[in-house]
Structure formats: C-alpha cells, structure tokens
Design a protein that fits this description.
The structure holds two protein chains of two kinds. Chain A has 18 helices and 35 strands. By secondary structure, chain A is of the alpha+beta class. Chain A has an eight-stranded mixed beta sheet with strand order 3-7-1-14-11-12-13-24. Chain A has a five-stranded mixed beta sheet with strand order 9-18-17-16-10. Chain B is an alpha+beta fold. Chain B has two domains: 75 residues, Beta-grasp domain (Ubiquitin-like (UB roll)); 66 residues, DNA polymerase, domain 1, CATH 1.10.150.120. Chain B is globular and about 45 Å long. The model of chain B has no long low-confidence stretch (mean pLDDT 97). The chains are: A alpha+beta, B alpha+beta.
C-alpha cells in the first residue's frame, strides 16, 4: 500500500517483439533434447529388423542366432504386439505380424548392450518372406482388381468422420456435392482441366526420431521422446497395449524440429514394446538419418485431377476435383489429410458448384502422415496453377481474377458454411504491391528471363472437432509465475507466446513469467497435440482462461482485504490497484501467503493456482454424401505469396529475387515470431518446390541421405523475403489471434510455378520444379 | 578391441580418455565426456549439427576418429562463452531470433565462429557460403545470417 496506482495502463506484451524465452539455453548448448538425457549404465539399446520388400507375407521369424550373440538381451516380434494402433483408423500393428506392407516395415526389434551389437544382431535374425504383388501407384491401388493390402479393413476401429471402403484399398473417401456441376459447365465461357502430381516429401527434422522407454516390474511405462504429442502418444499406446493411460508416462524435452513427423505415434511404440521385454532397463531407440527418410511419417504423394470453369466476366462457376492420395502402408493419420483436403478442396475461393472426391489409397509406400500444412501445400500446388491457367484463358490479370473470386467474410464456402471475417483481399493486394505487380522489370543478364507469379491459400486446423487444451498458472513467493502447458515448444515459439498471454491476462511484466519443458504427462496439463498451428489459438485460450482464473482469486482476496467491490480493482504491472480508493498492493508474498485479517484475527487467501481449459464446441459434422454442414472447421487462416524470380535459359536454374508473403493472422501476439515463421515456411516451401521428393524404384526408396535428398541450404534462399502481417481479428482467438506456423509454406511452390510460367512460358505440373525439367521444357519449346 | 589413451584440450581444460579405434570424436564428446551441446543429426557428415572446432578449424565431429585428436585442441558450443560472458555470436543469436527448434544452433554457432575468426567482416555471400554445410529446417537461414552479420558488426 505504498505507491499510488498509476492512472495510465502498463504496456501490454501483446503485439510486442518479446525475445524467445528459450533462446538463451538454445545458444549455450544447455537446452536438452531427448538424446541428451542421461540414463546411466543400466541403459540398453534397440535396433530394428526391417522388411526389405514393399509387400510380403511373413512366414517365419527365427531369432535364435541373434539371441546367441553376446550382449543381446532380447528380441521382440509381432507376436509381442497383438493390438493395433492408429489415431483416426487403427490399421497398424506396432511390429508386423503376418504381413509387411512397405520397405522398412518393422518386423523385429533387438535389444542389446550397445547399438553396434544390436545392429549386428539384426542381421542374424532370419525372416522368411513370401513376396506379394505390391501396389505402387494410387490410381492402380484404387482399382477394384488391385492387390488388397488390408483385407481386414472393415474390422478396424475408426473415427466416426472417416469412411473406409472395405474390400478395396480406399481407407477414406471424402465427397463434396454442392450445386450442380454438370449443369454449370454449360454456363462457363472458359474451362480448364489438368492433372497435377506431388511426390512424397520428408519432413527432415534435423533431430532424428528418438525414444527411450522403460517398463517397471509392475507394468508402469515411462517413455522419453522427442514428441509433438505426448498426450496422444500416451493414449494411443495405452489403447494398443490395453492398459490405462495412467500406466504410461510420456516425458518430452525440447523437440529438434517436428513439422508433423513427431505427431501421433510412429516409432515410439517400438521402444515401448522392446522395453516391456527387459523390465527395469531403459531402452534407447534412435533412428539413423537413413531410417528417418522412410520409416517414420512422410508427406503423402498426390495425383490431383481438376476441372474448373468461369464465365467471361471472370466469375468462377464450377470445380470438379479428384484427389488420389498415395497414402502408404498404413493410413491411420493420413485418412484425415484426405478429409481436410476434401473440405478445403476449392482453395480460398467462392465457387457455387463443386464436385470433389478425395480418396485415401493404401499403397506399399512409406506411411503417410501429417506434415506442415496437412495436405494444403499439396492441393494448392494444383489449385493455384489452374487458377492462373483459367485467368490466362479469360485474358484476365491474375490478381484481379483472385480478388474477384476469393473468399471474404460472409462467403459461402465449399462446405456450405459461412466464411468468418477475413483479410485475404488485403493480403493479395499487399503481396502484389510489394513485388511491383504489373510492372515488367529487367532480368540481370541477357540469357535470363524474369517473371512474377503469385498464389493464395487457406488452411484450417484439421483435428477432431473437440480437440482440447488446458493450462495452469502458479505463483511463486516473489510473484514470478510458472505457467504449465501441455503444448510443445518445437521451434515455433509456443512457450514465448504463452508467456506473453499469461503476463497480459494477469497484469504482470512478461519477464516474471516462466514457461518450461519438459512436458510430462504426469504433471503437465492436457493438450491434444502440438499440430495444426493450433497452439497460439487453442492453448492460448486455455492460458488466458487459467490466468483469468488466478487473477480472479487475487482480486477477490484484495476486495475482501480492502472491503471494496471487485469491479473497482485491477492488476497492473504486478500490483493490485483500486481505481476507487487508489490503494495498491504488491503481488509479492500475498499470492502465496495470503493477507492478514484485521486485528490479528487470522489470514485470508493462500497459494494462488489458476487453471483453465479450452475446447471448441461449435464444429459440426459434415454430411457424408455431400460434405455440407453449418460449420466445418473452427476457422481458416488465409494468405498470399508473390514471387519475383529469374530463370537462366541456358541451365534452367531458377533464382528467387524476392518473395512477398502476406498473412492474416488475426492478431500477431509476437510480430517478430510471426515473421520468423513466415521466413522459415517460405524457404521450406521453396525447398520442396525446387529439390524435394522421395524417389522409389519398385517401392524401394532411392534417395535416403542428404546427398541424394537435397533440402535448401543457406545458399539456396531467396535474396529477399518481405513478410506482411494483416490483422482481421478472429472471434474465437485470444486477442483475435489465429495460427500461422504451417500456412507460410502452403502457397510457395505454386507461386514459384506461376512465376516460372510467366518468365519462360514453361508450366511444370509435377513437383518439384527442377532445373533439369525447366531446361528440357525450354529445349522442347525451341 | 584395442583401447587407446588420448590426451587433448577441450574448451580450455585438459582431458584424458580411453577410446577404441573406431570411436568417433562425436561419440567421445557426447557420450564419454557428457557434453551434449554438440548434436548428432546424421552421423554421416552431411548436416553439420556436430560441428566443433579442431585446432581452430571447423569439422564434423562424426567424421573424425577420436584417436586423431590426441594432442589437439577442441572447442564445442559449451566453450564459446568465456568467464560467464556469452560469445557475441550467442548474444546476437538471442537478439535476432537466430534459433527456433535449436537443434542445428550449436553447430551453426561453431561454424560462424570459425568464419568470423578468419574473416571478421564477411559479406552476405561469404556468410551463406560458410554455412552451406549446416542444415536448418526451421529458420530459412534468414535470421541466422542476420545474427552473424550483427555479430561481425559488433566486433565479432
């Protein structure tokens, strides 16, 4: 009660470029990742025996020679894993039982005293296979006479919004039937039809997958792992083993890059099964970089067939799309990519007549899973090129065409739902302006051609309708605050924005707030998964709820203490203040010890713990026949990227001069971090556009090293990335915020493709746009 | 398996270790010495996450045998800060958001240290060229390059 309250508000950390809370420990080498944890001499190591065939029946596994090798402790096989596992569709055994479905499918696991011995023992495990006909193409796989990869499809457990077709290789079919497409073609003055292809892409986190598991003698399991989804992993593994969630504890320190590859369960369950064989010993399983390329999740391949039409005034009328996802051996996660791309199949356009079929097709390729953008980079590759082609057919400027047709607040979107307020037109205009759209600028040399192109995008968080978040806020004696979350820091800055939000909602300086890992399902509050760019929004809402809950407790205490109405009180800059009596009280001590009642009559209050949760309650189901429903998703984040590049006509090489990327993030909680996400996404998008794609020969991956699978290095990046933030607030987001982590890579590849077409007239429909393809197309054109 | 006794300096302190003929420098640093700041990203010399200074030169620790460092001087990310004072590169990586997930960061910092030691005023292209062997999947390299530039400007 010393200093009087200030009349002006303390500065809010919302919208400030607060420094990353994890930056210091990440630059000193002190930040711990899973492989940095120390387990002592009791630690054992696991390695995996993998199927060398794309499709085979397992006739016999003989581990006797492996078990005889000194240092080998145990060998596990599919016989140790009766249950199935999977997020949306339980179609996977942790270790193969009777059948292996891709090159790399885990057949057995060896546990030994060293990695070298385990590796050596793997070669001594004798597996007898009967090689079966593989499915290596989703179009072939979708045919009725294709070899059947999952004859038991009808018996698998499945989420109620996924629709497998038993007796086929189609594990999900999502349909849109809106308006009357066939009748609409007649009204179109221009119609364009094309087929686009996208290869399998690897996430390439620089930290390879790693899991250390330990089972104790009474069935409790602890799993230390690099994870975007400790809670989902706990739940999926518990279900697969038929044990309680409370019997599994997942601990996850910092994640060295995820991009979706460390969501759900991929290799982590292997370590758990191995640990169960050697109770009391932690068992470490770390993937080699080679394994990383094809034995965890990969981004699914896609064949997209699209037909689109507009009237001569440039108004879109109809779109017909077929997506065939090359979803791999198990589609437990990929089925929802199929769904999300179905209900977003038009891209961010208002089109009255839509007919879309998105098929998730089992193939004998690596397991498809979530990757940054969850299907959106793949479908926008085609959508945004065919929009350019249609605009050309109509003789319209591509910016004008997009402004005329893009979604706005109140638009009726592909699912029949109404679009919320959105700043996409502003994004288009600003990105175009930033590259001097409409102005021809000279190339840097006579043999080079310059071109500009752009692409727009949308993406909604793709998740179950009721994916939840929770958080807690605890005070220390000195009024510093510990915020606990179940969302993971995977580089995107989640802990930093959580600190900012908690500080703003509580009314304390942001440097009083601590948000720390590791996540620990025993102590951290529940979070569905760190995916879908959902943390700033969903976890953010939970953090704000928890902070408000703690704040309420403090204000109630002060109101009682001062005998004032709570409405007159506030917390500013770490002080409780009264606007009425102008008293103030520091938070220190009172947030733990409470406050004394008058005349030594005892105490009030006690340690303050705020809790809060958030779960969207308003997402409705979609009609399985038509894909229509009142609210298909929580919301969409939209954006636009414009690319200015030049093509070397002698070599086909492309140099990006500048990229302008504009996103409507609702509210940038930390603008600097938003820009960092945009830059990283643009470069990852450009990397997939120019270099990436897993090459298969008869189902065998051919390029499983950084030499053969190139990703962008420091010399490959655009000369300039112009990040533009647009803020049209989101009604269900904290301070109006939406996510942006994934979105920044969605339109990069098609924007580059459109710019290449503008520069040299070469249209590449199959990703990636290699210099070789461009050069050969130029040769052919001459 | 023959064991070899080697003596070397790491981050300013002298160490002696028993290693096998095939122990890598990376394994020595991470597993025998417990210095886990240096990361294992590929173990095949392709990603740069395990970059350390060996007699002042940047090397991929996974590509060097431990027996080769007998008598040598090694600096890892843990050795960049001196007397509790961060290296200017570390300061600038914090200030300019040169890190996201942080897994490539130790190797990038060491490579950048080697660059500034031999070229205190590198151009953008020289920075990019120096870091081309250090893969980063998060940042798009933009802030990393900015941070190195800022460190050079601050006297590197």
């Amino acid at each position: 009660m010393s200093t009087p309250p200030t009349s002006q508000q303390a500065p809010s950390p919302i919208g400030e470029n607060v420094r990353r809370v994890d930056a210091l420990e990440k630059t000193t080498g002190e930040a711990l990742f899973a492989d940095d944890l120390q387990f002592g001499p009791n630690l054992l190591y696991g390695r995996i025996v993998r199927c060398p065939h794309p499709h085979a029946r397992i006739l016999n596994v003989d581990a006797s020679r492996a078990l005889a090798l000194p240092g080998v402790k145990a060998v596990v096989t599919g016989q140790d894993t009766p249950g199935t596992i999977g997020l949306y569709l339980q179609d996977r055994h942790i270790f193969c039982r009777d059948r292996a479905r891709y090159v790399g499918d885990p057949v057995a696991g060896v546990i030994a005293t060293s990695e070298a011995i385990a590796e050596q023992a793997c070669r001594l495990v004798e597996v007898e296979y009967e090689v079966l006909d593989p499915v290596l193409d989703p179009l072939q796989g979708a045919q009725p006479d294709a070899p059947l990869l999952h004859p038991d499809l009808e018996d698998y457990e499945v989420a109620n919004f996924i629709f497998p077709k038993p007796g086929t290789n189609i594990s999900n079919h999502f349909r849109v039937r809106k308006g009357d497409v066939e009748a609409a073609w007649a009204q179109c003055d221009a119609v364009v039809e094309r087929e686009f292809r996208v290869p399998h892409v690897q996430h390439v986190p620089i930290e390879p997958h790693i899991a250390i598991a330990q089972a104790d003698r009474h069935g409790q399991i602890t799993l230390w792992t690099s994870s975007q989804s400790p809670f989902a992993q706990r739940s999926l593994i518990a279900d697969a083993l038929g044990i309680s969630q409370s019997s599994i504890r997942v601990i996850s320190p910092y994640v060295g890059g995820g991009f979706g590859s460390k969501a759900g369960v991929s290799m982590e369950a292997l370590a758990v099964i191995m640990a169960q064989k050697v109770p009391g010993h932690p068992v470490k399983l770390r993937l080699t970089r080679e394994e990383e390329f094809f034995t965890t999740f990969v981004r699914q391949g896609l064949i997209a067939k699209t037909r689109i039409g507009a009237t001569k005034d440039g108004k879109l009328q109809a779109m017909k799309t077929e997506y065939y996802w090359d979803a791999g051996a198990y589609t437990e996660y990929g089925v929802n990519v199929t769904r999300a791309t179905g209900y977003s199949s038009t891209g961010p356009y208002e089109i009255p007549h839509v007919h879309a079929d998105s098929y998730c097709v089992y193939t004998n390729h690596p397991v498809g899973g979530p990757m940054r953008g969850f299907g959106m980079p793949e479908i926008h590759w085609g959508i945004e090129q065919i929009m350019d082609l249609l605009a050309e057919e109509l003789g319209m400027d591509k910016v004008e065409f997009r402004l005329k047709n893009c979604v706005r607040g109140g638009s009726i979107i592909v699912t029949g739902s109404e679009m919320h307020p959105v700043g996409l037109p502003e994004c288009i205009q600003k990105a175009a302006d930033a590259v001097n759209w409409g102005t021809d600028e000279p190339a840097s040399a006579p043999h080079k051609r310059r071109g500009k192109g752009l692409a727009i995008m949308w993406k909604a968080p793709a998740m179950p309708p009721n994916a939840g978040s929770s958080a807690s806020v605890r005070f220390n004696e000195d009024a510093t605050v510990t915020v606990s979350v179940g969302g993971q820091e995977i580089g995107q800055g989640a802990f930093t924005v959580a600190a900012q939000m908690a500080a703003a909602a509580l009314g304390v300086p942001v440097d009083w707030v601590r948000v720390h890992g590791p996540l620990d399902t025993r102590y951290s509050p529940y979070e569905w998964q760190t995916v879908a760019s959902r943390l700033t929004w969903s976890m953010g809402n939970a953090v704000v709820a928890a902070a408000n809950n703690a704040r309420r407790q403090i204000l109630e205490l002060a109101a009682e203490h001062w005998d004032e109405a709570i409405e007159n009180l506030d917390i500013q800059d770490g002080m409780v203040i009264s606007y009425k009596s102008e008293q103030s009280l520091p938070l220190q001590n009172m947030v733990v010890y409470g406050l004394p009642k008058p005349d030594d009559q005892g105490w009030r209050g006690g340690p303050v713990i705020g809790h809060g949760s958030f779960m969207p309650t308003y997402v409705t189901g979609l009609d399985p026949e038509t894909g229509q429903g009142p609210r298909s998703v929580v919301h969409y984040t939209t954006g636009c990227q414009a690319v200015d590049l030049e093509v070397d006509t002698l070599t086909g090489q492309i140099t990006i001069l500048r990229v302008a990327a504009a996103y409507d993030v609702g509210k940038a909680i930390n603008p600097d971090q938003v820009r960092a996400q945009i830059e990283g996404g643009v470069v990852q998008g450009a990397s997939t556009a120019f270099f990436e794609g897993l090459a298969f020969k008869d189902g065998v991956p051919q390029n499983t090293s950084f030499v053969d699978y190139r990703i962008a290095t420091s010399v490959d990046i655009p000369y300039e990335i112009i990040s533009i933030i647009v803020e049209v607030p989101q009604d269900d987001g904290p301070w109006g915020a939406r996510g942006v982590g994934e979105h920044s890579m969605v339109p990069t590849a098609p924007a580059i493709a459109n710019a290449v077409a503008a520069a040299v007239g070469v249209r590449i429909l199959d990703m990636p746009i290699t210099a070789e393809k461009v050069y050969l197309a130029l040769e052919e054109g001459e | 398996m023959a064991a070899h006794q080697i003596t070397f300096t790491i981050n300013g302190g002298q160490e002696t270790a028993l290693v096998t003929s095939h122990t890598t420098l990376l394994s020595l640093i991470r597993e025998q010495l417990g210095l886990t700041g240096t990361k294992n990203g590929c173990a095949t010399g392709e990603c740069g996450a395990c970059t350390v200074l060996l007699n002042g030169e940047p090397v991929n620790a996974c590509m060097v045998l431990a027996v080769e460092v007998d008598g040598a001087e090694i600096v890892t990310v843990e050795g960049l800060a001196q007397d509790g004072q961060l290296d200017v590169l570390q300061q600038m990586f914090v200030e300019h958001t040169g890190t996201q997930c942080g897994f490539c960061t130790p190797g990038v910092l060491i490579m950048a240290r080697a660059l500034l030691d031999r070229n205190p005023n590198p151009s953008d292209d020289e920075i990019k060229d120096a870091l081309r062997g250090n893969l980063c999947r998060c940042t798009g390299y933009v802030r990393i390059i900015e941070a190195v530039k800022a460190a050079a400007k601050a006297g590197g």
